[in-house]
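Hey, resending since the last one bounced:
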Amino acid sequence: MMADTPVGRRAFFSQGFRKVLGKAMEAVEKRVLPGQYVRPPGALPEPGFLGACTRCGECTVRCPGRAISPLGPEAGLAAGTPALHPDVAACLMCLDMPCAAHCPTDALAVPADGWRNVRMARVEIDAGTCIAYNGQACGVCAQVCPAGVDAISLNELGQPSLGAACTGCGMCIIACVTTPKSITATPAGILS
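The structure tokens again:
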């Protein structure tokens, strides 16, 4: 029986350590939650992005649409890092991605396939408030989309639907005529 006691103690302390470590990781995740912010195009997944971004502001300066701004102190460990707010200013989807092209680190990088697989935010359309779903002609969201019909298209009733090519740039949100907006964006997070 005595032989079982040290093993039991080790297991007890090991489990206790895992619980404490787990609680610490939960606290860190609350401060650095992957996908908590809409990042500029070509951003690394959030943990890598936070490690690589030097908060130099180069991407902010290079953005022709002034859509990128640094996060404030309320962002905790992400303070000073660049973020997009698609409901305030849309990413213009510049062909040369100057924000990523001028990043001095690998926090932002121009993808080899350009905009093809960029997903900055998840966009959703609220059919309950969208006027096209309530009998009024509109379609402005599809007209302004820089990614085209593979990102947002209108069905035979003139109602918008999102496609796989949606980058989450926010152009449709800015153009939406409803108040409050029928189109919203949330951070894309880590995509497969």
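The chain has two domains: 34-117, 121-187.

Sorry for the duplicate.
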